[in-house]
Fold Amine oxidase.
Amino acid sequence: MKFIFFSLFFLPMLLCSSVECIHPHPLDPLTPSELNLVRTIILKAYQTSTKHINLTFQYVGLHEPDKPVIHSWLSSKTKTLPPPPRQAFVIARFQKQSLEITLDFPTRSIISTEIYKGHGYPMLTFDEQAVASQLPFTYEPFKHSLKKRGLNISHVLCSTFTIGWFGEENTKRTLKIKCYYINGSANLYMRPLEGVSAVVDLDEMKIVAYSDKHVIPVPKDEGTEYRVSKMKPPFGPKLKGISVIQHDGHGFTIQDHSVSWANWVFHLGFDIQAGPKSLFHTKTQRRNDAYYSGSDGTPVKISNAFCIFEKYAGDIMWRHTEIGIPNEVINEVRSDVSLVVRAVSTVGNYDYVIDWEFKPSGSIKLTVGLTGILEVKAATYTNTDQIKEDIYGTLIADNTIGVYHDHFLTYYLDLDIDGEANSFVKANLETVRVKDQKTPRKSYWTVVKETAKTESDARVNIGLKPSELVVVNPNKKTKLGNTIGYRLVPGSVVHPLMVSDDYPQIRGAFTNYNVWVTPFNKSEKWAGGLYVDHSRGDDTLAVWSLRDREIENKDIVLWYTMGFHHVPSQEDFPVMPTLSGGFELRPTNFFESNPVLKTKSPASMHFPNCTSQHYYD
Ligand SMILES: *[C@@H]1O[C@H](CO)[C@@H](O)[C@H](O)[C@H]1NC(C)=O
Ligand SMILES: *[C@@H]1O[C@H](CO)[C@@H](O)[C@H](O)[C@H]1NC(C)=O
Ligand SMILES: *[C@@H]1O[C@H](CO)[C@@H](O)[C@H](O)[C@H]1NC(C)=O
Ligand SMILES: *[C@@H]1O[C@H](CO)[C@@H](O)[C@H](O)[C@H]1NC(C)=O
Ligand SMILES: *[C@@H]1O[C@H](CO)[C@@H](O)[C@H](O)[C@H]1NC(C)=O
Ligand SMILES: [Cu+2]
């Protein structure tokens, strides 16, 4: 199972005044100089006589100010209120313990240090994984395994995999290593050394377990190539290009971390654990290049962490053809142009294309595209006729089994619909049997609204019952008296297939429902817990929600889990065509009427001979 978390802060459309745009935004990610300062302050505090300080920075990020502080700063934008003091939150590993350190930048001081006593370990750093993946190459039993298989060690690569927890009393901070034979090919994941694996203790940085179960030939490299530069003709169907020319330039502006486009203004942050983070609201900040801290605390730059572009794919924002009026044909069409903020997260073999699409209508579409390379296991089979056992997968190429697996993606949606106090409403579509004898109709359906009082009322498995799920501000109404809100339009939903007492499912119990609502709590941000590695599932959304707190007319967080059960097919070899899913957050009685009624289509949006696209400017 793979889990990804997103943080999304949402406050629709407040505008930035010029004064407020000058201050740094309180949710700006840490700058390189702030990251350096974190390193300096912490290393100084932990400096011992030995000079060699074995402290590693597992996580360094912004310690967010409390929400009321952010709100008062945002609402005082015409005054010159200084931003709240900048602070950092650090998880460090030191002497086999996880330290939680909070630092204050203005005073350059550590304001709190706590030793984490719970289960699980902090996120793994790139650096320690890189070091761990090199360990087999100096490990004699591994060299022997390669020799036994006649493989040249200089053509072997190793990669790291987290281990999870299967009920052990005591755990160590370990990870698993699996290796691949490249020998000239580039698609390493398609060429596993099946049966060979090592376990590394990261605190000791040494191999503590090794197994070489059986010799299965490495799948051949034929057919695994995906680099166009290495391929020979014939190529696939020839595609005619469509060029994107924006005669008047692009329509968005970026100032520091703030993006303005059409009727949207939002703040775009970055966090190494969350990926993109957004506050749809106000202005400010640095460029959208992102930085994170390396395990030695030095800033590491991620170039082009986001790409931002306007998209027009021939979609229609709205249209109507009217032929009912004598001697007149009305044909009104508006083109749907949107702004996409894209981040791609490559997790080893897989690539997740994460899009946030903002529409002038006020909708936000969130899409995740899965592509990249499957995780496979090697086998002796070259045809399904030979298979007499359950292989837990699909034979996708000679000697190559694409294993069955799941992808779950949980979005943290801290929706503040025109203010913090919100409620979660299930508008249930219910069948009513007609008792009235005067009509031949036997049934109709109607909407019965149910406001969730506590957390247990808000756990929803989508698809079991038709309902619209709306986050409303019960204190704000439209002129007509409807409660303003935004609703969740679900896309691909999945329900877990593991039994609930299976260890991976205990750890991933937040997938038991597609939708949860919790009261906002700054320390309940990661659905799988802050210490996911080797977690025991005791700090997950599913556990917090057991407190069954009140959520009506409160600052609430909506959690949405989407996903895919992936049954691989031959088309997924050697690289997988993108499989997409997502959902939409859509204004629902938020505006007084269609907010894009008077939005004109840009002049250049004409698709020849496509009458559905016709418009009159
Ligand atoms: C730090 O680690 C090195 C090698 O891993 C070890 O030799 C050294 O004793 C450690 N120093 C401290 C202060 O723990
Ligand atoms: C192993 O591969 C390296 C690099 O390609 C090559 O120089 C070396 O000769 C190979 N060794 C054997 C025993 O084939
Ligand atoms: C490595 O690649 C070479 C050239 O394609 C091939 O001759 C050789 O058999 C390969 N070795 C192994 C062990 O697959
Ligand atoms: C916030 O969440 C933490 C972690 O679940 C919990 O210990 C704490 O009691 C919560 N605070 C409130 C006010 O509920
Ligand atoms: C549009 O249709 C006309 C008439 O059918 C045809 O001549 C023209 O080539 C078409 N244009 C395009 C771009 O397909
Ligand atoms: Cu998959």
In short: The longest helix spans residues 32-45. The radius of gyration is 27 Å. Confidence is low (pLDDT under 50) at residues 1-21, 279-288.
